[in-house]
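Sequence in, structure out.
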Amino acid sequence: MKNYHVALMIMSALVINNIIADEIEEVIVTSSYIDQALTEIENPLHVLSGDDVSSIPTQSLGELIDNLVGVSSTDYGSGVGQPIIRGMSGNRVKILNNGMVVRDVSGLGADHINDIDLNNIQQIEVVRGPSSLLYSNGSIGGIINVVDNTITRKDFTEPELRIGLETQSVNDGDTHDFSYQNNIAGFNLSLAYKDSQFGNFDIPHGAALHTEDEHGEDDHDEEEGHDENLGYLPNSDYESTSKRFGLSKIGDWGYFGLSVNNIESLYGIPFHGEGHEEHECEEHEKEEHENKRIFSTTESDAFNIEGSYVFNNSLLQKVDYFFRNSDYSLTEQHEEEDHTEEAHDEHDEEGPTLFKNDAREYGAIFDLTNNSFSQKMVLNFIEEDISIIGAEAYMNPSNNKERSIGYYLSKELDLFHIDFGIRHDQIKRNGSLSHEEHEEEEHEDEIEYFNRNIKHTSFALSLGRDINKYWDVNFGLSRVERAPSAVELFMNGPHLATSRFEVGNTDLKSETSNNIDLTFNYENYGFYGHFTFFRNNVDNYIYLLDETEEEHEEEEHEEEYGNHEGLILANYLQNNVQLDGYEFEFGRVIELERGNLALSFAIDSVSGEFKNGGNIPRMVPSRNIYSMSYSVNDLEFRLNLKDVKEQRDIGVGETKTDGYQMLDVLVKQTFNLSNQSNFSLSLFANNLLDEVARNHTSFVKNEIPLAGRNYGIRFNYQF
């Protein structure tokens, strides 16, 4: 089937003889949420267009934005790549779809994917500063908003059908997608479908899957090591199917629309931490442990209502309203050969573990803009039920409720432009902890319930000023609070994705981020530059601290925690931290006799230290990013080299990570067939140097290297 697709793409390119060059109109990109030109928002951000997303190979959200300055990704194999913004990740970075937080279970495990559909999107916004306060509470790192037009705010003027085909070499993968939009009898109809089938991905030669030092010399003899060089990563396969349907009606009064989203996926888990004591078992058990298949299946359903009612009076311009009901489930399963009767009881039956998040979110945005300034007030209400049921349930069910009110102001003054945002949140975390008691050789669980009521007030301020016609400067100041998550509060059990026995802390306080950043922008006759310096002091920063060997051997430790199933004991603790960093980008666009040549060089760097000494674990290493692109008519060539430095600033229990160079190439040819139709062909190569690369921010960097060299072709047809 894949060979047929490749042949079809090549033949389609060859038969095109007439190329019609259309003038490209200038497009002003706006924020989907606050209806303001992004160039007018005085805070660091990036915008990745939908056309760029559709041209590059299918990958996780984190990998997709990993080349943006100040933005990177952690990973856990194929399809799992959670974004990092300026050293912040996890619950500190919120993933949104059309302005509403995606309520999946990615925050419950490093091996859980971000449930987001990247098919036929308008743009991806990476936002910091005052505007990010209106999206979500606790977004200390920032937000990533994936915008699509499933519920369109403007009438479709012409029917449009998009068809896409893609193949990749590194995983023998195929992707098929299509989308359709049209205005029928005054109603706007939108459909989208995407199916991806990826096998185990290849790894570079010399990338051992397991390192000997992870277990220690005392646990294994040399001949019993796990070093392997299979040429591929077992259990790194990935399948996903997404479907979207949207309907909207637009008039002078505003608009109203609804949509239904469904995503189903299946992916292998290439590493699943097991207790070291397992290696003392019989040889047959060791072999079964190495060969077992561990995978996850996910399903998400989201029903959305969105609309706007126009008032156009001196007090209130319009009211935007929204509602989302989402049901998300992730089932983790073991698929392995039957064990013999001599196998240990804990491995006889390994049933599935079900992670669920049922959430409801609704709210309204009141546009109070007048002739003097732009202002908006936001009300938001959220309730979600999180549960983990099954063999590896490490947290009791919890209920979370959030009530928020936010205010956003934007105004152009004589000397500078001002953006200001303030948000008040009322958060309830309801959960419990199970305490095992022993009575007459029978085990009983005593459940202790907790109700946490948390109140926050966060604000952010940005000031921008033109120094001269070439330079402008922006200053940002923010104080943002983040409540501890349900996992950080109520976690108490083995978390095999991190190879740890994690223990939460019900006494955790809210984090408080005090951030300042200063940005200089330069533009002059084809030259441009962006220079940003930031400092983020976070009080009560929540993190996992691994136990030491000395602590593990203490008698009191054994009485309190037992042997914690042979895993590393890790406790959620708090400390004050300071993150310092900078982002530098300089480039030039050169107009040649034929076409345009764009060159750029960028550096991003962030360091994180505890105020009382020591480094924050799993911090992003410094990077140099070299980019070159050349475009002439409808032909585009892009080359990107990401030079990731060695990470030597490590936390307790960490090891240093070697640097690497990642070279990516893309060639795209677009053929304009008519005013409404075009055909594009993209040839790409990722990790062209076939570098052995490991992501320092990953919990499983030693076990899971990044994918090797990947060639592919992408076909898009729009008519």
